């Protein structure tokens, strides 16, 4: 019986010495494989999951796809499932109950899927669902038409419900040897489709929920408080643990985003960036399964190049991270303020624009004071609306906040813009976060699952705001965007290298004071031609922003919330780090086992997309 093999022979329990989580003690070792080999009846099975070996594709060659003669046989999948102790899941698209063709049609269940489709936690609890269906290929949306057709599209074919490290190693070794596309899904938040992949075997990290407070963590470079965080833990779970232990942890503003997966891998911006830099700067060690199937530690003293790249070099590129040790900081108080203004019979468009410009003029003093903001400028039904949601001032008092904002508020008053800021002092981070960004608030009730827009963003260096001529040019790139009725969701923030670390976080982030996001909107029931047009639209909208903040002058874009069609993405997303990141990628993953669109090294691969109008993940992955 194979499940017997799995428990007894393959999962060598690494006892006592290993400092990891319980689930990291179950590892696939060379000794375990050897003992499987020596039992002749099992040697074929052992061959499926050996380390290292696997094809190196030549240009034009592709990963195996369902239906190919090289696709694993039913009995091989079944052996794999046994080796995985029954944790292999054959993908059922989350909305399959809405369709008769899949065989699980159920109108009531379809209604449940439909009414929960905008809730991130609903997708997180599913082994393969992701939150932005455009990249999946929109092949199985919750629909009213049960006679439509639901297909796998960019969903993987199989997913492993991971509960220990050995399962990741077994799945990865199987995928590499069988020339399968390999996908890592944590929460499925990725805006670019990186947690999708047609024809793939996926590892689903969601259930690795361990989190441990380390009051006195010691390494060569750090001694102090830290958390060890499992790959499936969310930002909210980290914030709650930090609150419980009276410390500050750096996370993002969306509570359901994964902490140790794509967020830290992509750098991770955070309301505390004005004090401590990027979230990735806090990482002290990673436990990771690398492309050859080995389980290693990456830290300053162990595999330092890998450690460098894992901090900001992008998700799904260097390996499967199973946990992170991240430093935390003393508890810090903050001041939060929300305010807004809009055009009206007494507030003209011209005044509104002057008010926005005045705010932008303060990005340098505001970020110098360590503050962060999240704001929205929208246009609807003839009215412009500016909403500060909110201004977040860590380590400030009401007095220092008032002093900092007085020049702007005075300027607004002179313009005839009256605001009524609701300003609150918070002793602790979690209540401040909860009041403004949790799922219970209008801002935090993040609506996912949509197909109505393509996002894009730009990171603007300090010089764009500090140098008067550059500021004028920057305003000249932003104002027409707004005048055309397009929205900006933005942040003032400056995640400088405040801890003095050396890592893979894009050099662009270190000089930034503004992060501006926009989107190209799409009609319902979008056609491939409309998607293609939206791709041109977002690139067109971003063009003036790129020109005023080019990569050659320190501008760029945030890779985690980016436009998948961003030209020159290597420099824009990864800054000066790109050449080194690529070298490390080639060293640790020479066969390209890990692929992510716009990931480091992905320029030598292509997803041969079905006719979608955009580079989706619904197609064969091939070497260029
Ligand atoms: C509503 C919303 C709000 C957001 N707010 C913020 C914010 O405030 N600050 C910020 O910085 N970002 C923010 N983001 C962006 C977010 O950081 C990225 O989408 C991030 O990639 C999500 O990571 P994940 O692991 O949760 O998602 P997934 O989609 O599951 O994974 C994202 C990528 O990471 C890879 N990956 C996941 N787990 C692992 C692992 N264990 N090992 C290796 N690779 C892995 C995946 O393969 C994929 O490539 C936001 C996104 C959304 C949708
Ligand atoms: C899904 O939606 C239904 C209503 O249709 C609701 O009762 C249920 O609680 C939701 N489930 C989840 C997991 O959000
Ligand atoms: C995944 O595994 C966990 C145990 O680790 C189990 O509780 C859960 O039900 C499984 N989920 C699915 C969808 O199989
Ligand atoms: C749009 O504005 C008009 C005039 O100000 C108003 O009567 C109408 O209710 C508004 N519509 C919406 C959807 O807000
Ligand atoms: C303000 O500008 C918008 C967009 O150009 C326009 O629709 C609106 O009529 C203008 N309002 C006034 C009062 O001029
Ligand atoms: C917070 O502010 C105090 C002084 O007001 C300063 O001494 C301290 O260094 C600040 N903390 C951080 C983390 O910047
Ligand atoms: C001001 O903020 C506090 C804290 O979030 C909130 O309880 C209160 O309702 C707000 N007041 C107004 C007028 O919005
Ligand atoms: C910037 O623009 C303003 C008018 O909008 C002008 O008065 C000023 O001279 C310009 N500054 C520079 C350096 O070009
Ligand atoms: C955020 O907090 C501010 C200040 O306490 C409050 O005025 C505002 O209403 C909150 N925002 C949301 C979206 O709840």
Helix content: 25-40%
The 3D shape can be described as globular
Describe the main β-sheet briefly: 7 strands, antiparallel
Please report the number of helical segments.
21
The unique ligands bound to this protein are:
flavin-adenine dinucleotide, 2-acetamido-2-deoxy-beta-D-glucopyranose
Unreliable runs:
1-9
Task: State the assembly state of the protein chains.
Answer: single chain
Explain what you see:
By secondary structure, the chain is α+β, with helices and mostly antiparallel strands. The chain has a domain at 334-578: Vanillyl-alcohol Oxidase, Chain A, domain 3 (3-Layer(aba) Sandwich), CATH 3.40.462.20. It is built from 21 helices and 22 strands. The strands form 6 sheets. A 7-stranded antiparallel sheet has the order 17-14-16-15-19-20-18, with helices on both faces. Strands 7-8-12-10-11 form a 5-stranded antiparallel sheet. It has a 4-stranded mixed sheet with strand order 3-4-6-5, with helices on one face. Strand 10 (283-289) and strand 11 (295-299) form a beta hairpin. Helix 1 crosses helix 4 (74-83), helix 12 (349-360) runs antiparallel to helix 14 (398-415) and helix 17 (468-483) packs antiparallel against helix 19. The radius of gyration is 25 Å and the shape is globular. It starts with a helix and ends with a strand. Mean pLDDT is 95; it is low at 1-9. The protein binds flavin-adenine dinucleotide and 2-acetamido-2-deoxy-beta-D-glucopyranose (NAG) (8 copies). One 2-acetamido-2-deoxy-beta-D-glucopyranose (NAG) is lined by residues 381-382. This is FAD-binding PCMH-type domain-containing protein. Keywords: Oxidoreductase, Signal. InterPro entries: BBE, FAD-bd_PCMH, FAD-bd_PCMH-like_sf, FAD-bd_PCMH_sub2, FAD-linked_Oxidoreductases_BP, Oxid_FAD_bind_N. Residues 152-331 form the FAD-binding PCMH-type domain. Belongs to the oxygen-dependent FAD-linked oxidoreductase family.
């Amino acid at each position: 019986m194979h499940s017997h093999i799995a428990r007894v022979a393959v999962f060598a329990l690494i006892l006592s010495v290993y400092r990891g989580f319980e689930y990291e003690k179950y590892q696939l070792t060379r000794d375990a494989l050897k003992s499987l080999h020596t039992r002749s009846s099992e040697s074929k099975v052992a061959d499926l999951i050996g380390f290292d070996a696997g094809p190196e594709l030549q240009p034009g060659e592709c990963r195996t796809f369902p239906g190919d003669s090289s696709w694993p046989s039913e009995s091989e999948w079944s052996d794999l499932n046994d080796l995985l102790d029954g944790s292999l899941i054959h993908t059922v698209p989350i909305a399959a109950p809405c369709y008769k063709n899949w065989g699980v049609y159920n109108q009531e269940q379809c209604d449940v899927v439909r009414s929960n489709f905008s809730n991130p936690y609903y997708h997180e609890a599913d082994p393969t669902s992701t939150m932005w269906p455009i990249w999946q290929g929109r092949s199985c949306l919750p629909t009213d038409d049960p006679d439509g057709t639901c297909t796998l599209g960019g969903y993987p074919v199989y997913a492993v419900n991971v509960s220990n490290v050995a399962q990741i190693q077994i799945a990865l070794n199987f995928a590499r040897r069988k020339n399968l596309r390999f996908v890592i899904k944590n929460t499925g938040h990725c805006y670019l489709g990186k947690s999708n992949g047609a024809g793939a075997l996926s590892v689903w990290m969601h259930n690795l929920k361990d989190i441990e407070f380390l009051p006195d963590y010691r390494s060569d470079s750090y001694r102090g408080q830290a958390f060890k965080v499992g790959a499936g833990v969310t930002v909210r779970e980290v914030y709650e643990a930090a609150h419980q232990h009276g410390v500050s942890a750096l996370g993002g503003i969306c509570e359901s985003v994964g902490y140790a997966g794509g967020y830290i891998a992509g750098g991770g911006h955070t309301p505390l960036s004005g004090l401590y830099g990027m979230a990735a700067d806090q990482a002290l060690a990673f436990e990771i399964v690398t492309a050859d199937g080995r389980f290693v530690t990456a830290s300053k003293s162990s595999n330092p190049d890998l450690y460098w790249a894992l901090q900001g070099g992008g998700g799904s590129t260097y390996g499967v991270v199973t946990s992170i040790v991240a430093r935390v900081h003393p508890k810090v108080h903050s001041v939060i303020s929300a305010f807004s203004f809009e055009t009206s019979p007494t507030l003209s468009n011209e005044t509104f624009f002057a008010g926005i410009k005045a705010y932008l003029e303060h990005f340098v003093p505001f970020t110098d004071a360590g503050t962060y903001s999240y704001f929205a400028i929208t246009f609807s039904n003839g009215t412009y609306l500016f909403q500060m949601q909110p201004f977040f001032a860590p380590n400030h008092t009401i007095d220092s906040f008032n002093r900092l904002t007085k020049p702007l508020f005075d300027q607004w008053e002179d313009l005839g813009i009256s605001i009524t800021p609701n300003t609150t002092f918070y002793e602790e981070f979690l209540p401040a976060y909860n009041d403004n960004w949790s799922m219970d608030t209008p801002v935090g009730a993040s609506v996912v699952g949509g197909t109505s827009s393509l996002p894009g963003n730009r990171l603007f260096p300090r010089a764009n705001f500090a140098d008067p001529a550059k500021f004028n040019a920057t305003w000249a790139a932003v104002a027409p965007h707004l005048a055309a009725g397009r929205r900006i969701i933005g942040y003032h923030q400056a995640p400088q290298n405040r801890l003095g670390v050396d890592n893979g976080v894009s050099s662009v982030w270190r000089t930034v004071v503004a992060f501006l996001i926009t989107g190209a909107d799409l009609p319902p029931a979008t056609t491939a031609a409309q998607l293609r047009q939206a791709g041109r639209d977002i690139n067109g909208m971003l063009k003036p922003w790129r020109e005023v903040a080019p990569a050659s002058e320190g501008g760029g874009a945030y890779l985690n919330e980016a436009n998948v069609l961003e030209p020159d993405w290597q420099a824009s997303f990864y800054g000066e780090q790109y050449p080194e990141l690529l070298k490390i990628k080639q060293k640790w993953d020479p066969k390209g086992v890990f692929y992510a669109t716009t990931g480091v090294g992905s320029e030598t691969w292509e997803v041969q997309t079905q006719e979608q109008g955009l580079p989706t993940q619904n197609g064969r992955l091939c070497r260029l």
